[in-house]
Amino acid sequence: MKSTFVFLLCLAVWSANGQGVFSNYTNSALQRVIEDYPNKFQNIKGEKIGAKGTYSEYKTTIEIPGAAPGIISLQGLPEKEQYSWKTALYSSDDFNQSKEKFRELFNHIKNTIVKINGLPPFILSGNYEMPVAERKSNTVAFQLLPSNGQWQQLKVELVLQQQGQEWKILLKVFDKDAVDNSSLANMGR
After folding, report:
1. pTM of structure
2. How far is CA 79 from CA 76, 122, 183, in A?
3. How far, in Å, are 30, 40, 46, 59, 72 from residue 43 at the CA level?
4. Quick check: 79 pLDDT over 80?
5. 34, 36, 85, 93: which one has the fewest Cβ atoms less than 10 Å from its Cβ?
């Protein structure tokens, strides 16, 4: 009886450690990114990694175990700057495996409660749509509920898209008016 308990305990610890990017790390990182949205991601912005015209990219100080390094993008002139944050959570050349991970990540993110100091809690709400390989990009958009003021501009997306022979799952946080010009960084690294 005691050995069965020890075995099950070891199995539970091993299983929890093996979850990596598909555990609470994703939700914790997402919480920190959303908290810094009103600050234009200034508190999580690292060193500049590239620029072209009015477009710049920076490393992010937020890391998700098992995910590619995140990128903060800045587009536009100072009076109309648009910021975005994204990271590649998963990559595989197998669509079916990617589709399963996409659903798993969606289930981890949906109904996440986001707490920001001085505000009532928000809930990330989104509707799952089954990815289809023929669509090279499959997106689930989340919204903060209830949202008002600047929070209505915030978009959170989970994207499964084909890049070359690989299927990548991206997590993005951005202003709804922002344009995704991530031409400088390849999120597959």
Report:
1. 0.81
2. 8, 29, 23
3. 14, 8, 9, 12, 11
4. no
5. 93
Residue 148 CB: number of other CB atoms within 10 A? 8
Query: CA-CA distance, 181 to 43, in Å (whole number)?
Result: 22
Secondary structure of 47-115 in HEC code, one letter for each residue? EEEEEECCEEEEEECCCCCCCCCCEEEEECCHHHCEEEEEEEEEEECCHHHHHHHHHHHHHHHCCCEEC
Q: Helix, strand, coil % (nearest 5) of the chain?
A: 30, 35, 35
Phi and psi for 74 in degrees, rounded to 5? -125, 125
Q: Decide: residue 123, CB within 10 A, 0-12 exposed, 13-18 middle, 19+ buried.
A: middle
What kind and span of H or E run contains 16? helix 2-17
How many domains is the chain built from? Answer: 1
> Tens of pLDDT along 129-160?
999 999 999 999 999 999 888 888 899 999 99
Q: Cα(58)–Cα(182) distance, rounded to whole angstroms?
A: 11
> Within 10 A of 162 (CB to CB), how many other CB atoms are there?
16
In a domain, 7, yes or no: no
Residue 30 lies in a domain: yes
Nearest to 89 by CA among 7, 1, 29: 29
State the residue range of the domain holding 167.
Answer: 23-175
In a domain, 80, yes or no: yes
pLDDT of residue 17 exceeding 60: no
